[in-house]
Specification:
Number of domains: 2
CATH topology of the largest domain: Elongation Factor Tu (Ef-tu), domain 3
Number of helices: 5
CATH superfamily of the largest domain: Efflux pump adaptor protein, beta barrel domain
Protein name: Efflux RND transporter periplasmic adaptor subunit
Structural class: alpha+beta
InterPro entries: MdtA-like_b-barrel (IPR058626), MdtA-like_BSH (IPR058625), MdtA-like_C (IPR058627), MdtA-like_HH (IPR058624), RND_pump_MFP (IPR006143)
Pfam family, one: RND-MFP_C
CATH class of the largest domain: Mainly Beta
Family: Belongs to the membrane fusion protein (MFP) (TC 8.A.1) family.
CATH architecture of the largest domain: Beta Barrel
Strand content: 25-35%
Helix content: 25-40%
GO molecular function: transmembrane transporter activity
Number of strands: 19
Distance between the termini: 111 Å
């Protein structure tokens, strides 16, 4: 039997090196796969203890200032406007002359009326003298009864004519006085609507300017029906309390963030809703002795005096948003956390009211909540004392940006912002 000789093929040096490298690494790979996973690192967090306490709340809303007396300065008579005697935009005093109309036609009309009065007074004197002569003759039957009646009638007609003529004189005097147009109050003047030399009439173009009283100043805001119902329900549920007689204190934050020095109070609430906007008007009044506030300014009105009894307030950063609801991490006795669904209310500065879901004494994660997983061990690096939250309440109450409240009778309420439409 013939056999085919097998010839051995020598391996190339490169192939030999590759085989040797694989053989050397195989034990290392096997060891790496068999190594146990490293222990999980505990998340470092800070926690605080939940407390319940009576918490003052402020309600802030957008508002607009309005002059407490906005007076139209008008011409009461027809005539030419001689000159404007005030400086536009400056403060004017009560009784200060603002416009002067041409007096000459009215002076002439007054002279005519006085002349007519003098004529009627003369006729009255004649009628009185005639009656004085007729009465004794009629008593002696020297004149007829008709003559006496005529004399009496003439005297009465003359007296009535004098009264009418006196009325014409008084009217002419009034019209002459109306040519000097004065300010009826202390206030800030507007620009002139008519210029010198213009012919003005009392019916068509009689508006000359405005004067705005600056002290006191009104501040208006509006409250929506939904907000009214919301706060009314909270009051009924005992989660919100208003001061007695709705005696709120109102502060103003100006456009530059500064606080207006004077405190105000609510003096009027319109009982009827505006059918176009679904809101009703609330008005606060402020002393404005230095004229700091001007009509038409947009300001932030902050209402103080409300209280949330036994409220739960936690830092906003402790509350997380889940797929369906808000939640916090509650730390158990074993230093492990579990999710707790909560019902949130209004913001109070950098904190959040919790309406439901937390109990007093529970500990929750504040900082580091994003690194926490359920039932994983935690490393508590700092525990904020409960007194810190209590102190923060007072600070937050002065810096809050929540919503104006609604009362069972018209009062302040609105959430976030309102406008002169309140917040």
């Amino acid at each position: 039997m013939n056999t085919v000789p097998v010839r051995s093929v020598p391996l190339r040096p490169t192939a030999c090196a590759l085989l040797l490298a694989v053989a050397a690494l195989s034990p290392l790979v096997a060891c790496k796969k068999a190594a146990p996973p490293p222990a999980a690192t505990a998340a470092e967090v800070t926690v605080t203890t939940v407390t319940q306490q009576d918490t003052p709340v402020d309600f802030e809303f957008t508002a607009q200032t309005q002059s407490s007396r906005e007076v139209e300065i008008r011409s009461r008579v027809d005539g030419f406007l001689d000159k404007r005697t005030y400086t536009e935009g400056q403060l004017v005093k009560t009784g200060q002359t603002m416009f002067q109309m041409d007096r000459k036609p009215f002076e002439a009309a007054l002279q005519t009326a006085k002349g007519e009065l003098a004529q009627q007074q003369a006729r009255l004197e004649v009628a009185k003298a005639n009656l004085a002569r007729v009465q004794p003759l009629a008593a002696q039957n020297a004149l007829s009864k008709k003559d006496l009646d005529d004399a009496v009638g003439n005297e009465k007609q003359s007296a009535a004519a004098v009264i009418s003529a006196q009325g014409e004189v008084d009217t002419a005097l009034l019209n002459l006085g109306y040519t000097t147009i004065k300010s009826p109050l202390n206030g800030l003047s507007s620009f002139a609507r008519q210029q010198d030399g213009s012919y003005v009439t009392a019916t068509s173009n009689g508006l000359l300017t405005y004067v705005y009283q600056l002290d006191p100043m009104w501040v208006n805001f509006s409250i929506s029906e939904n907000e009214m119902l919301k706060y009314r329900d909270e009051i009924a549920a005992g989660r919100l309390k208003f001061p007695s007689h709705n005696d709120f204190v109102v502060h103003l934050v100006l456009a530059d963030g500064s606080l207006f020095a004077e405190e105000g109070h609510i003096d009027f609430a319109n009982p009827a809703f505006n059918t176009e906007t679904g809101t009703f008007l609330v008005r606060a009044v402020f002393d404005n002795p230095h004229g700091t506030l001007r009509p038409g300014q947009f300001v932030r009105a902050r209402i103080s005096g409300a209280l949330r009894p036994n409220a739960t307030l936690v830092p906003q950063r402790a509350v997380l948003q889940g797929a369906k609801s808000h939640f916090v991490w509650v730390v158990g006795a074993d230093s492990k956390a579990h999710q707790q669904v909560v019902e949130v209310g209004d913001w109070q500065g950098d904190q959040w009211f919790i309406s439901d879901g937390l109990k007093a004494g529970e500990r929750i994660v504040v900082d580091g909540a994003l690194r926490v997983t359920s039932d994983a061990p935690l490393k508590i690096v700092k525990e904020l004392p409960a007194s810190r939250s209590s102190t923060a309440v007072a600070t937050a109450a002065s810096d809050s940006a929540a919503a104006p409240p609604a009362t069972e009778t018209p009062g302040p309420a609105a959430h976030g912002s309102g406008g002169t439409s309140a917040e």
